[in-house]
Amino acid sequence: MFSDWPMEQVEAWVQAVGATEAEIEDLLADGREEVRRWGTWVLEQRERLACEEARMVRLCQKERTLVRQGFRLVAGVDEAGRGPLAGPVVAAAVVFPPGLVVPGVRDSKTLTPARRQLLYDLIRRKALAVGVGVVPSQIIDEQNILQASLMAMRRAVDSLPVVPNYCLVDGNRLPELPCPAEAVVDGDATCFVIAAASIVAKVYRDRLMAELDRQYPGYGLAAHKGYPTRAHLEAIRRLGPSPVHRQTFKGVRDWEAGTAGVAGGSPDLAE
Predict the structure, then answer these.
(1) Is the pTM for the entire model greater than 0.90?
(2) Could you report the per-residue pLDDT of 124-146, keeping only the tens digit for each?
(3) Which phi and psi (to 5°) does residue 89 adopt?
(4) Which of 173, 201, 229 represents a domain boundary (last residue)?
């Protein structure tokens, strides 16, 4: 089929149309190495698609079971920002129409920033409802990070424009919620709606940290998102804590003792 096609036509056709099994065999049997490479490319793409489809089936298993039990509106809930020294903790709640999936969704920590942004936009467009809850550093200091995280989750669910029938919440603790709920350990890695919520929470918080960086320059909040990187600890030691720093967190409270910045942090924590 492809033997008398110019290379440019083969390339354009394969990328636009794909190929059947017989056509893949023709590509792989072609006398030109470039055409055979396109046959290999099509096979690899097909294998990746099959793997992604199988992964999504596994990822959606829990919510599909709940839908079959009558819980049609299943919300995934997750938070971002428990570990940073500055900024709020943010939670997101996401509800999709039953049966709808967004390929590529996974634990936000495993995604590049660019991929997170792309999936964030897709989730916002395709979800039936998205809610976000934000709890600032002052309340984190007053109540502790666990209670603040649970508060952010409750606020996220309360802000949904629909009332979910069931909530799947990442972690081993549940906030007070207006519907039946289940805590799922490692839920952002094993449950589709929680993974989607983890992406929304992470991107939303990252954007807040970029805004706080403009309000409180010098700390690099947009770069490390408030996590205890070496550069952040050194900035605290040099400038002192800002109003959005968590005063009860080690690394911030150590500032008065002159020890902030001694222990180096990891620049990767911000991701």
Answers:
(1) no
(2) 999 999 999 999 999 999 999 99
(3) -95, 135
(4) 201
